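call fold target=DoxX family protein
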Amino acid sequence: MKKTTLYLSWALQILCAIILLQTLFFKFSGAEESVYIFDKVGLGAVGRIGTGIAEMFTSILLLIPATAWLGAILGIGLMAGAIMSHLTILGIEVMGDGGYLFALGLIVLLGCVTVLYTRRKQIPVLGARLK
């Protein structure tokens, strides 16, 4: 991997991990906006806490070079679900946030897609076949 590609990957891995980690406080503390979102989507407290745990593991995996590809896959899945929830149930703007959470979801999704692409050769079995 070229140095510039490696630096881009690391910058995106750190950015995505920071975004995911900063939302954990709100999910785990039961912040009003977080409770509203997960209740409206029909997942309640179990979904809120479960998603928080998944995001915590995703962040950790993104920050470990050997598992960044796996963290990227998990991040893509989590953010695809979040974005679909915004587009189908919640709306772009939630509780007057001006679309802030939706934008963060898009940033993490695009960041994880880029990380997965840049680290595709590290994926066991499949990676050796990718160019």
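return ok
The chain has one domain: 3-129. The helical segments are 3-22, 24-29, 32-41, 44-62, 68-90, 100-118.
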